[in-house]
Amino acid sequence: MPDDEKWxxxxxxxxxxxxxxxxxxxxxxxxxxxxxxxVGEGFHARAGGPHAERIALAQAGPRARGSTLFVTLxxxxxxxxxxxxxxxxxxxxxxxxxxxxxxxxxxRVDGRGLRFLRRAGLRVRVGVLEAExxxxxxxxxxxxxxxxxxxxxxxxxxxxxRIATASGDSKWITGVKERAxxxxxxxxxxxxxxxxxxxxxDDPLLLPSPGLARPFFRVVLDSRLRLPLGARLxxxxxxxxxxxxxxxxxxxxxxxxSRGVRVRTDRDxxxxxxxxxxxxxxxxxxxxxxxxxxxAEVLGSFLEARLFDELALFRGPLLLGGRGSRGAFGGxxxxxxxxxxxxxxxxxxxxxxxxxxRPVRLTR
Length: 364
What we know:
Helix content is 28%, strand content 21%. The protein has a nine-stranded mixed sheet with strand order 11-10-9-8-12-6-13-16-15, sandwiched between helices. Strands 2-1-3-4-5 form a five-stranded mixed sheet, with helices on both faces. Strands 7-14 form a two-stranded antiparallel ribbon. By secondary structure, the chain is an alpha/beta fold. The longest helix has 13 residues, at 4-16.
């Protein structure tokens, strides 16, 4: 149908208004059209709140009978969640036709909602602007498909690829605009993750941009549980959750937990925190997407393990030079160029002051 893309673009624009607020749920937009006019529309605004289809159909009321419903994600059909399923509501409203951008990758849905609607006699079309819909819900799609959190690596670096001087000074490579954009990127995810070296050097708060109502985890890889009890992360742990991932140390664990910090430990032996353990622990906490901000050894470990899905690079107009200046990615030294990970460039949001890349070998 010639107008299907037109109305789906409107639904996608509505869905985008929920970005960062619906986690760990996807963003969804819905438009109800009858006789070439919008009679109802809505978007999913927060986890636990009404779904886009319900909002749009409530707005449409009796005008929904005989209409076409455009929705960016397959209507859900299962009850294993906080809100009732949407597919039966679409049927009950008397909608004649449903146009869906993409199937829901959640195994509890994944085609079941579409089958329900077709068996109910509705005409169903799937795949209109699917690439745009998948991109909008990339974090949700990857988490559902891989069974681990979506991982974004973020680095601020000079034009020659450095993140700090030899002495460790890194303030500031980028400006106020870039730092605000980085906080905005945080709010699209469920958590931000750094290594203990970053905490000891900078004592960061690691908060997203203001106004986020849902829980946001601040995560520290800290093998020996060295997080200072006076750190700003610890002092604010009861207001915004802090999760420390490390190795067993009963005394330090009790001290941190008494101040509201959550601690998850892997094993007694020394060495860096295993990243697969870390991602499994995050998943158990309900984290479906995490933004990794470093430092260099943490970023390098995710690179070496090939455990990331996208890379955001903020570049400052600086040349640092010096053999001892610190690169963005630490870890072991590759011996051959064949070991390099090839990337493809993605289109960032309009006006975003960063580059966005995706590993070619991990392309979905």
